[in-house]
Amino acid sequence: MKNLNLPVMIGILFSTIGLVTLFLMGQALTAAIWLSFGNGLILTSLRFNRVNEFGGMEQQPVPKARLYTGIFLIVLAVILLLLQIIQDLQQTAPQS
């Protein structure tokens, strides 16, 4: 439980909101935004402990591949949010 810092807890909350949005409301784009941002936060913030050669516990650094994937998911969430905003503006635009 020591691995669960604030960004990881927020990521779990956002991922849960995304799943509920997908299953209950069926809004795929909105769910993808929540899930992408939540999973990106989890990937970039979750750290694991290991036993070092002296028998003490130490935190492992986040691997670069996991860090880059998490950053990509957060950027993807922002892009999807902009796409959602554009779609909403086009749907509410007055027809001429």
Brief write-up:
By secondary structure, this protein is mainly alpha-helical.
List its salient traits.
single chain, 96 residues, mainly alpha, two-stranded antiparallel sheet, 2 strands, elongated
Would you kindly provide a written description of the structure presented here, covering whatever features stand out?
With 96 residues, the protein is mostly helical. The chain is 70% helix and 6% strand. It is built from 3 helices and 2 strands; from the N terminus they run H-H-E-E-H. It has helices at 6-25, 28-45, 64-92, and strands at 49-51, 57-59. The longest helix has 29 residues, at 64-92. The model has no long low-confidence stretch (mean pLDDT 90).
Our Rg estimate from Cα atoms comes to 18 Å
Task: Give the N-to-C terminal Cα separation.
Answer: 57 Å
Total number of helices = 3
Which structural category fits the helices and strands? mainly alpha
Order of helices and strands: HHEEH
Shape: elongated
Any chance you could write out the topology, listing elements then pairs?
Layout: H1 6-25, H2 28-45, E1 49-51, E2 57-59, H3 64-92
Antiparallel strand pairs: 1-2
Helix pairs in contact: 1-2, 2-3
